[in-house]
Every structure is written in structure tokens, then in C-alpha cells.
Amino acid sequence: MRTPTLPPPRGTLSWLLQLGYTTARLFKQNSLQNHAAATSFYFLLSATPLLLLLSYALQLLGQLAENSVPASILMAALYSQLQLDSLTTLGFIPRQTQLAAGGVGLVTLIVSSRGLVHSVEGAFRVLFPSQGKHNMVLSWVLPLIILPVLFLLMGLAAVAQVALNFLAQNDFIGTGNALVLQALNALFGFAMVWMLLFAAYWRLPRQHPRARVAAVFALLATVNLALLLVLFGAFFKLENYNSLYGAVGGVVFVLIGAFFAFLLLYLWAQALYAYGKADITALEKLFLGGSGEGASKLEGFVFGDAHRLLEKYGQVHPPGHILIEEGDDSRTAYFLYAGTAVVYKNTDSGRRHLGALSEGQLFGEMAYLLSEKRTASVVAETEITVLALPPQIMEELMRHSAPLSRRIIDILCQRLERMNLANPG
Q1: Using an 8 Å Cβ cutoff, are 49 and 56 in contact?
Q2: What SS3 class is residue 237?
Q3: Which CA distances in Å does 339 have to 236, 308, 322, 376, 421?
């Protein structure tokens, strides 16, 4: 056996096209925009009670500001940067918060937080289908822990950034020092979001992807979220938008921003799943011959380059090479990419010719499907190029592709029928 001699592949571009196409197809198939809408609703519902907590914090900060210069500066920064006067005037932040209202807000926060976490988990169950069972204790307890901690960290990062902006604008600590602190705070926020997405991408799927791969996709998602935040921040600061829609429009704007943010989160999670299935999808298209309706031309362009698969699974054998020997215990299946081969079976009267294999045929799968020894021998008639597929790849292919499974079962039934006709006794 020798390594296939092939022209240089298109390589990375071909792989990226296949990954992007598979991600887009699965994203549409799973209707992830609906999951993003549900998650953004729960996010807004979870964030709403925080306004009550903010009013408590402002009242406490106001009391501290009477005798503390740092508290006075922080309060001035919050009112200046977040326009809290406008929100208070419009009634979004109550001037005097009652304990009962605060209690209702906390209950709402807990209930909506659970809904938020469960909507994310539900989306990941669609993104990463699995037969695994869920831990009911963790399913109820984690939402009560994750969201309060997450909102606390986000609040601290936001308050720190607001305070630093105020100090920089008023030259309290010097422009250079303020810029350095702002950069460090932004880096902390970026790292916090990345770690959160990394934990979700790595641990939420029942079959955990490799940590390194999950970390890369979490980083890409975090960069996209940062760009989205910059874009939405620039648009929200437009004077025309504020004057036309006011604070109510701000709430709607937050909901829209949350929807796009969760859409990006699920898009990159879908890309992570597609990354793990890149070989399986390409093998499916190759075995089915690019057949299909509607998108067949596009699929033919995207999956037309088989060099990557040949480099990974390909083998080239000379004429006369025995690829499969009758009675062997191997479970590897093969796809004949180029050349021809013949099938023989040993009998008492000698070796009997059973048929020929041509390009585009899958063979050797009976040993895998029936868990039996090889029932016949396959010998290369010409120089052949094959893709050798171990049992775990065949298992994933059968689970991933219903059309391919039906074709394999149909071929298997035809072969068993021919064997029965050939051996009537």
C-alpha cells in the first residue's frame, strides 16, 4: 500500500466552503432564529428586575455619597454616563422602591433566569442531538446560581467602564491612565464572555467536543459579539434614534440586540457541530454521488473536491492486491473511488467469481453491519484508489444520513438475495 499521488488540493478554501454550507443548512433546518427569539425574551425578562435592584443601589449610593468622595464620583458617573435622570423621569427607575416590589422583582429574576438557562439548554439539545439523559438536580439548581453570578460580573464590569469613562472625560486620573484602565477593563469583560461561551460550547453538548476546538469557536463567537456590541452602541448613540424613540425604544433596542447576540451564539455553536461532522457530511455527499434536489448544483460545487478525504482516508493499491480476504475478522468498509476490483468466494471446487466492483461503490460493510467474518474476497483488478472507513466512521454515517442508511441496507439486501440464489441448499 502506498500514499495516493494526487494533485495539490484546494485545501483550506474547500474545507471552509463545506463547513459554511453545512452550518447554514443545519442552522436553517433547526430553526435557530426561533430559539434565539425565545432566549432573548427570557434575557430581557431577567434583566428587567435589575432596574429595581439598581434603584436600591442608587439609594444606598446616595446615602454613602453624603460622606464619601469616591461614592460621590461614582454616583455622578452613573448619572452622567447612563442618563439615569431621564430613566427616572420616565418612570423606568422608581424614585422610592418598596420592599414588596423588590421581592416580586427577585422572584421574577429567579423564574426568568431559570427560563433563560433552560432555553439555552433546549437550543443546544437541538444543535447537538444526543440520546443522553439530563440531570434533573443540575437542571433546577444551576439556573439559580449561574444567572445571578453572571449578572453580577456583567454589572461590575459595566460600572467599572462607566466610572472610567467619567474619570477620563473629566481628567481626574489623567487621560493616559484612564485609557490603560479602560483597556484592561474591556479585556476583562472580553475574557469573561469568552470563558462563559467556552464553558457552554464545551460542556453543554452531551458529547463534549475537544476543549481546544471549543475554545477556538468560543473566541470567534466572542469577537463577533464584540463587533455587534460596537455596532449597536454606535447606532444607539445617534441623536435621531434617541429623539424619535426615547427610553421605550431603548428597551426594544436591547431586545433586538439580545436577539442578534443569541443568534450569533447559536450560529457559532452550530458551526462547532458542523466542524465535528465535516468528514461525515463530505463522505455522505461523495457516496450519494451529489444527488439531490434544489441545491444539487451548489452541493456539487461545495463538495466536488474529494482531495481532503483522499488524503485522510485514501489508499492506492496495485493490480492483484487482496484488499479483503474471506474469513478475515476486519470490520473496515471501503469506497471504490477509482479503478475496478473483482469479488471471489472460495468453494470446494475452487475460487468462484461473484462479480465486479466499479467506481462509486461502497463494499465491505456487511462485516460491520452483521458483525461477522468476511464472506468473500475482494481483489484489485486494476490499480485502485479506495477510501478506508473504520467502524466508528460507518456508525456515524449511518446515524447521520437516512438516505445513505437506506441505500446501504438496500445494497445489503440485494447481496444477501444473490448469495441465497447462488447457494439454494
Answers
A1: no
A2: coil
A3: 63, 19, 14, 19, 28
The answer to whether the beta carbons of residues 39 and 261 sit under 8 Å apart is no
pLDDT value for 182: 65
C-alpha cell at 351: 475460487
β-pairing verdict for 350-357 and 362-363: unpaired
**Dist. CA 377–CA 361, nearest whole Å:** 16
Instruction: Render pLDDT for 272-311 as a digit per residue (tens, 0 to 9).
Output: 999 988 888 888 888 887 544 444 677 777 887 788 888 8
Same domain (yes/no): 253, 364 = no
Residues 249 and 316 in one domain: no
The tens digit of pLDDT for each residue in 45-74 reads: 776 666 566 566 666 656 665 666 565 655
Range of the structural domain that residue 378 is part of? 307-422
Q: Residue 386: enclosing H or E segment and its boundaries?
A: strand 384-389
Lowest-confidence segment of 58-62, 89-93, 395-399 by average pLDDT: 89-93
Distance, CA of 50 to CA of 301 (rounded, Å):
51
The cell for 33 is 432564529
